[in-house]
């Protein structure tokens, strides 16, 4: 119990270093996550239930955010769509973070031709806009939830490689690493125990920022038909349908776009706050 309270107190103190924006981002993101988790309890209607009698109904007391061209409740579909966006964003970033950080640490530690080859590959990946690269991968793999995650993860690997490689080049020459090497520690242990823990804070902070990019990419790919197949509710798919009916049903595109904006805003606020909290200058003032 005491350990739990200490952890919560330390976490609160850490986020407090990020200022009011960090707390605002955390509060907004928590609300969105809870909405997605509790979707079956708070969604007023079945997101897949069609009612052609009430198709394209504007926002009202019965349908708070209106209905789409099939008579499905927009609010319910947005709530369930949050599950897809958050799941895709989180899983794709975790995959990219794991693979990119591992490859970046190994590349920076090993050096030589291997490092040159990895960085050439990373530069090639970064030469493509993330959305374009995601479109290429998604188009090759096909439209599905699993392929969407893979496509977005591939677009996010390169930044993590660079983020992990740069400090590794410095850390591998540090005295504590040299001491560990002189004591007979294996290269794998040095990278895992002595180098990686020094990177993890920056990796997690940037991961929260790049998760916002992953969610935007998911919405964009779903918008052009390379995301999760209908009738599953996704924010990008709803925005696409909204543009098809923009003149007669403005709410179909506006409300999903607002939720994408709020989610990206929350992640950026939280990420910026955490980045400030990990700033050594700010830590010295604490």
Automatic annotation (TrEMBL):
Subcellular localization(s) per the UniProt record: Cell membrane
Membrane-spanning parts: 21-43, 84-110, 117-141, 195-215, 249-271
Keyword set, alphabetical order: Cell membrane, Membrane, Peptide transport, Protein transport, Transmembrane, Transmembrane helix, Transport
Limits of the ABC transmembrane type-1 domain: 82-271
Pfam family, one: OppC_N
SUPFAM superfamilies noted in UniProt: MetI-like
GO CC terms: plasma membrane
Membrane topology reported for the UniProt record: Multi-pass membrane protein
Domain of life: Bacteria
GO annotation (BP), single: protein transport
InterPro entries assigned: BP-dependent_transpt_permease, MetI-like, MetI-like_sf, OppC_N
Family statement: Belongs to the binding-protein-dependent transport system permease family.
Protein name: Peptide/nickel transport system permease protein
Source species of the chain: Bosea lathyri
